[in-house]
Description:
By secondary structure, the chain is of the alpha/beta class. The chain has 13 helices and 14 strands. The chain has helices at 2-6, 12-18, 21-32, 62-70, 84-91, 110-127, 139-149, 183-191, 205-210, 212-217, 252-255, 267-284, 294-300; strands spanning 40-44, 46-47, 58-61, 74-78, 96-99, 134-137, 155-164, 167-168, 195-202, 218-225, 231-238, 243-246, 308-309, 318-322. The strands form three sheets. Strands 4-1-5-6-12-11-10-8 form an eight-stranded mixed β-sheet, with helices on both faces. Strands 2-3-14-13 form a four-stranded antiparallel β-sheet. Strands 7-9 form a two-stranded antiparallel ribbon. α8 crosses α12. The radius of gyration is 19 Å and the shape is globular. The two termini are 34 Å apart. Mean pLDDT is 88; it is low at 1-18 and 325-341. It is found in: Secreted, Extracellular space.
Amino acid sequence: MAAFKASRFVRLFALSLSCSLALAQKVIAACTQQKNHRPIIGALCQETVTGLSALSPSYIAASCVKFLESGGSRVVPIRVGLSKSEYTDVFYSINGLFFPGGDVDLVTSAYAKAAKILFDLVMQANECGNYFPVWGECLGMHELAYLVAGENLLTLTCTQDVALPLNFTKESKQSKLFRNFPKGVLDTLASESTTGNMHNWSLSLKNFSANEKLRNFYRVLTTNTDSSGVEFISTMEAYHYPVYALQWHPEMNPYEWANRRALVHSDGAIRAAFHMAAFLVSEAAKSAHRFSSQEEEERHLIYGHSPVYTAQLDLFQQAYFFDREITGRSREDCAPEPTEL
């Protein structure tokens, strides 16, 4: 990664030939601009399922928005069912991406199709020296694994509602994510059951190790073992790109209050959540993308939407809902069989 950074200026001329002129100009700005103290992170919506499906075609859990805001970022909702050009426009206006957990199909859902377009843009930008982070949680982690591996390698695990301590690997000490965390926070994550797991499917260490594409792209930072003895990956990051994937939900500890074993509100769990948010936002602050105008920025920010109280319908205390129809689908088609919980 050090070589990747050091060579950015040298590659600017070649970049103008291999990338569009507009993209080259953005890279030059990114290389010369100081840290962005007004970062905006795009949170990907997904189709509504379970108790929320009658309310609207798509949603974002409010806890995800609060998590990003707690680190010092503003949030733009990225709706499903947009065109590639629309996703491209928003991508070059924001400074990072958040792929949340959820219940939709890993391959065929509108969430998955949007994630594929956006991930391709992330890879293209970073290859051209245009720093841009993406962060995935639970289903978001599965999506990031699928997009690299090109196949679904998930395994059923007994992890639906459980809090676990993290088993740190040797590589975690050199990781971008954890290397600057306070020792007290790392000790808490390693010794206390603070990380919330709300999933039926996991990326097992066995399947990860057998896939060359995943091994070459991701560094495993932490693992866990379910009650049946299956060891699965709980945190990983890319070797050469700002791509981060978590099986657990740091945003839920401060902001979700359902009566679930996975939701831990201890001091250590709350501190860890805010350190995770601060790291993600610090990565987004390295991106120089911006909206074309103040008016355009304000039009896209989530402040124009109001969260709805949903605790009586679903796990989430609040959620944001979006009315735009999903391209090529009816409202009745917006609740596919869940592949991730």
